[in-house]
């Protein structure tokens, strides 16, 4: 009856979000007075999970699952849920989950809530708060199926450390290949990925051209941030499509989102609104983004950003 949590990894290492979903699963398990079992796929690096409430790790090692494959991953998680008799399965609301979670819901005959931002307010009926309408509203959603799947938004619940110990068990689910494959095409470099980033520095058409992205990269470097851009910027080929954020691009739910030379069109805001703190740098005081911003700087990016980099470097040097 333990709560099952799927802890995502990349290139053999657990992602930060893995510890966040484990923390969430622990909160659910406490409410249901049960334990937490994590399933990991192709990573040996699982020891830290016990610090986030995991009691047992089911460790899958299978070369067919080296690249993300929605059906194969769903089968592995389904079999783990059945083995543990889990009534609640927790995963992150990541880009891969868009493919994985609906399949898993079919396999487990389960109800699925995505973009969940808080621990259940009630367990009977099982009720969670989630972002709705591309982050413009919150709703409480009750899941009435026997098995429930909860997709947790990144940076919404946070990391909750506990002291504990976990046992690890090798787990070998049988994976059938029906030819449905969704492969992750992210990661071309060692840069911080948008999905995992605490801080995202994003540039828009106000930066005039690709030759001016040096200062965006430098600011991101100083802050340990990921870089992102508006849709026209990637459409124009100034930046790779993988950096396009918004309604039709990647969703961003970082702790800090810095928008530079971006007007704040509704389609852009739809994808970045879930970020906790939004800072806007724009030369036009009437730019719509200022209405959604927590902090705003009205000014020329070519003046403001280099000054900001200088101040941050000086601040870091004092630490
Ligand atoms: C169906 C659909 C889906 C879409 N999906 C997305 C999406 O997912 N993501 C997305 O981003 N867009 C999306 N768009 C496009 C969106 O509507 C906007 O056109 C786009 O976000 C505008 O990009 P921008 O803010 O970079 O450019 P602009 O609208 O051209 O704004 C540039 C901003 O830079 C400022 N600026 C200019 N010079 C400076 C300077 N020197 N210093 C500081 N600021 C300066 C200007 O004041 C202006 O506010 C979508 C549109 C449609 C119709």
TrEMBL record:
InterPro entries given in the database record: DHS-like_NAD/FAD-binding_dom, ETF_a/b_N, ETF_a/FixB, ETF_asu_C, Rossmann-like_a/b/a_fold
SUPFAM superfamilies: Adenine nucleotide alpha hydrolases-like, DHS-like NAD/FAD-binding domain
Domain Electron transfer flavoprotein alpha/beta-subunit N-terminal, chain residue ranges per copy: 3-182
Residues that span the membrane, as ranges: none
Keywords: Electron transport, Transport
Keyword Transport carried by entry: yes
Highest taxon of source: Bacteria
The family this protein is said to belong to: Belongs to the ETF alpha-subunit/FixB family.
Protein name, per record: Electron transfer flavoprotein subunit alpha/FixB family protein
Species this protein is from: Aestuariibaculum lutulentum
């Amino acid at each position: 009856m333990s709560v099952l949590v799927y802890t995502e990894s990349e290139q053999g290492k657990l992602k930060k979000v893995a510890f966040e979903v484990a923390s969430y699963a622990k909160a659910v398990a406490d409410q249901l007075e049960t334990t937490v079992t994590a399933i990991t796929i192709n990573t040996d690096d699982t020891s830290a999970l016990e610090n986030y409430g995991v009691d047992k790790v089911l460790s899958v090692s299978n070369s067919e699952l080296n690249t993300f494959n929605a059906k194969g991953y769903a089968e592995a998680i389904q079999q783990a849920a059945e083995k543990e008799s889990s009534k609640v399965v927790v995963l992150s609301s990541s880009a891969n989950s868009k493919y994985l979670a609906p399949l898993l819901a079919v396999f487990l005959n389960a109800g699925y809530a995505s973009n969940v931002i808080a621990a259940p307010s009630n367990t009977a009926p099982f009720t969670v708060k989630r972002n709705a309408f591309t982050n413009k509203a919150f709703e409480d959603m009750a899941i009435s199926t026997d098995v429930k799947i909860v997709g947790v938004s990144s940076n919404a619940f946070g990391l909750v450390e506990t002291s504990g110990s976990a046992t690890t068990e090798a787990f070998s689910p049988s994976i059938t290949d029906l030819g449905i494959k969704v492969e992750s095409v992210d990661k071309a470099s060692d840069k911080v990925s948008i999905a995992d980033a605490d801080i995202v520095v994003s540039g828009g058409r106000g930066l005039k051209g690709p030759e001016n992205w040096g200062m965006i990269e430098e600011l991101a470097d100083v802050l340990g941030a990921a870089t992102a851009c508006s849709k026209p910027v990637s459409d124009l080929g100034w930046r790779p499509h993988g950096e396009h954020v918004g309604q039709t691009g990647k969703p961003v739910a970082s702790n800090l989102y810095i928008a530079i030379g971006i007007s704040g069109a509704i389609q852009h805001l739809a994808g970045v609104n879930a970020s906790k703190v939004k800072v806007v740098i724009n030369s036009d005081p009437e730019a719509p983004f200022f209405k959604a911003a927590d902090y705003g700087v009205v000014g020329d990016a070519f003046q403001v950003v280099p000054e900001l980099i200088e101040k941050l470097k000086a601040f870091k040097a004092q630490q």
